[in-house]
Amino acid sequence: MRGGHSQRAVAKRFRVSLSVVQRWVNRAGDQRLDRVDFADRAHAAHHVANRTPTAIETRLIDARQQLRHHSPLGEYGAAAVRHALLDAGVAGVPSVSTIGRVFERYGLLDVAHKPRRKAPPRGWYLHDVCAGEAELDSFDVVQGLNIQHGPLVEVLNGVSLHGGLVASWPQDASVKATDVVARLTEHWREVGLPDYAQFDNDTLFQGPHQHPDVIGRVMRLCLALGIVPVFAPVSEHGFQAQIEGYNGLWQAKVWARYHHQSLGDLVVRSSDYVAAHRRRSAARREQAPVRRPFPERWCLDLQAHPGDDPVARVVFIRRTDAHGRVRVLGHVFEASPSWTSRLVRCEVNLAGGRVRIHRLRRREPTDQPLLAEHEYTLPRRPFSE
Q1: pLDDT at site 151
Q2: Which residues have a Cβ under 8 Å from the Cβ of 260 and sit 6 or more positions away?
Q3: 313-319 vs 343-349, strand pairing mode
Q4: DSSP 3-state assignment of 70?
Q5: 151-203 residue pLDDT tens
Q6: Which of 93, 155, 221, 358 has its CA 20 to 30 A from that of 172?
Q7: Which residues contact 319 (CB under 8 A, 6 or more apart)?
Q8: pLDDT at 361 over 70
Q9: Which pLDDT score, from 0 to 100, does residue 111 have?
């Protein structure tokens, strides 16, 4: 510029915008170039227009200290400070939220924010599922749906963890264990068998809870097909996230989207949605673990003893009590006195007669050491139809 070139020529030569040239020329002014400060400067304003004045901040901090040591109630939070200053007739007292931000800026808050940790990977409580070597199907029932001038409706929903393979079966009566067995048999015969099938602890899936050593109808179906049933409590966050997410999606995209005149209309729209969802997730299923073929000429024998299968096992996700014990199949087993009120995975080997209890921790999902091992024998008794 000082050599006689125009601002646009300089901008074109150095491939910068005209405003950049103007800014640096204005910065240099008439100074010698070796005395110009060419360092970058922050674009923020030196004084924030809406910041609380320092004098008021000091007044707030002093009031907090006064209340902390001399308040009869022992309260010295943002609300207490604001009330105290208003009672003292101080003008221009900020809002409670502003006072709270002032205290946070000066590091005066007593309660530390809970850190947000990264969620564990999908299926982290089962090693082969987490590694992508095994598929897991989750099932649940949506209840309390009422068609106007029609029957109450319940829907059995299912979704696979890796493949995103969904299924929905609306019906105009309460879903029973026999319905679940029929639907799952039909579904698995069509799409193939997963390695695991996950449910909540409802008696619909697990069987009656009032008696020990109960292996229900749905459990027997899974075991007869070489599928490991997994039972996860609804109250524990994350384990049922996949199926609960699909439950909400089905209700939003099928149930709440249309006005259903009859159960037949609902079934048709649900089938259309399931078919469209499966088409969209086809590429995802290609990357999922391979499902086993359904056995030919297979028939469920409910009277067969589950322990006769050498690989039959059931998995229960549980939380220990205050003494480090866990309840499985109506029996109480010792996990570890040092692992109280914590998550565990209980693997019941029906053929081997063993119950293995493994530690679970979301913060360390790959570290699942064995806490305890107990003997267990499933009694041989006829299944009550």
Answers
A1: 87
A2: 147, 148, 150, 266, 269
A3: antiparallel
A4: helix
A5: 899 999 999 999 999 999 999 989 999 999 999 999 999 999 999 999 999 99
A6: 221
A7: 233, 236, 326, 341, 342, 343, 344
A8: yes
A9: 67
Q: Residue 87: which H helix or E strand, with range?
A: helix 78-87
362 closest CA partner among 305, 306, 311, 319? 319
Average pLDDT, the chain: 92
Q: What is the DSSP string of 347-380?
A: EEETTTTEEEEEE--TTSTT---EEEEEE-----
Q: What is the pLDDT of residues 279-304, one digit of tens each?
A: 999 999 999 999 999 999 999 999 99
Q: What pTM does this model have?
A: 0.72
Strands 196-199 and 228-231: parallel
DSSP for 126-187, please give it: SHHHHTTSS-EEEEEEEEEEE-TTS-EEEEEEEEETTT--EEEEEESS---HHHHHHHHHHH
Query: Whole-angstrom Cα distance, residue 37 to residue 377?
Result: 83
Angle at 179 between CA 174 and CA 181, to 5 degrees: 145
Termini Cα distance of the chain: 97
82-134 pLDDT, tens digit per residue, is: 999 999 998 889 999 999 999 988 888 876 667 778 889 999 999 999 999 99
Burial of 10 (0-12, 13-18, 19+ CB in 10 A): middle
Look at residue 343 and give its three-state secondary structure. Answer: strand
Pairing of strands 325-328, 331-334: antiparallel
Contact (Cβ atoms closer than 8 angstroms) between residue 216 and residue 207: yes
| Integer Cα distance of 165 and 161 in angstroms | 8
Distances (CA, A) of 13 to 39, 82, 164: 22, 60, 56
C-alpha dihedral sign at 116, 118, 124, 129: positive
CB < 8 Å & 24+ apart, contacts of 141-148 = 141/175, 141/202, 141/204, 142/247, 142/250, 142/251, 143/174, 145/170, 145/251, 145/255, 147/260, 147/261, 147/262, 147/263, 147/266, 148/259, 148/260
Given this model, what pLDDT does residue 44 score?
63
Number of neighbouring beta carbons within 10 Å of residue 353:
13
